[in-house]
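In keeping with the milestone schedule agreed at the kick-off meeting, the structural modelling team has produced records for the first pair of proteins. Each record is given below as a sequence line and a structure-token line. The laboratory manager (R.T.) confirmed that both were archived under the project's standard naming scheme.
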Amino acid sequence: MGAIAAGSVVETFPEVNEELDFSSSMLRPGDYALRVRGDSMIDALIDSGDVVIMRPVPDPKSLKNGTIVAARVGDEGSTLKYYHRQGSQVSLKPANRNYKPIDALATEVVVQGMLVGVWRGYGSV
């Protein structure tokens, strides 16, 4: 469906319409896929070029801290990070010590989806 940054927050990538040919009982209507660009989630075993399967989150307040989410911060763009909320503050934490967390007011963070799977292609033999 598109791409998401796994680095600093960047401008949203234009939509890409690639089709993945796999079926799974874990997928639900509304789930979508994004290709990862960047290495901020490498220690979570999510690398640039991987495809993440995301599920919309109807109520972000119900998210558990530590959930990997696609989130938009203000008008800055979207990113893939660990979600942590404490009171009115949200911290979007990378899984790579070379990146800093993104801290913002909860009202400035729009959770676009939560991670339900990662797909990595290794090419053909």
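The second protein of the pair:
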Amino acid sequence: MSPRTEKQLAEHRTAKREQIVSDALFLFATRGYFNTSISDIAKEVKMSKGLLYSYFENKEQLLNAAIDFALKEATELNLTEDQLKELTPKEIIKEIIEGFFTVLEEKKELWSLIVSLAIHVGSIPSVHTTISKVYKDLTLQLQELFVSMGHPDPENEAFKLGALIDGIGIQYMVFGESYPLRKIKENIINGYMNQKK
């Protein structure tokens, strides 16, 4: 077997890093950040603590990578640029809302982690920076869509939709399967789709 090329080594390292982030995300979501140690993560990814530290300097750095991954996965649309170009701003808003509800139903542990960290954000300043950046980017994207829709107060509407989504996520976590998730989703989508202009 011949030695790996630099490109293969870089690809292997990137794949391993993604696996570490994914496994750490699962542990943080199921056990909580403060109840998960670097040893727990190393054991989960089947590597030594020393090797894990060659990927991430400390648990907080790993947490930030996991949050960045989680928030992007929770807010990313599964559409190509060409598909996006063919949608109206209202249809894009609908896709964003649909995507959020899909993540909420299919990846409840992911949302659980996001909510948990948002609550404890003051005790981990770097997490505040990471969460704030992703939320700010999402709010600006929503604001642009509301401008395109001719909304009279696009900035406020973007913040309102973000708060509504966060609140629904928290309530769904509290009430579980008895929460009328699909009805609420339809109500929100219909509200935006039936707006004038």
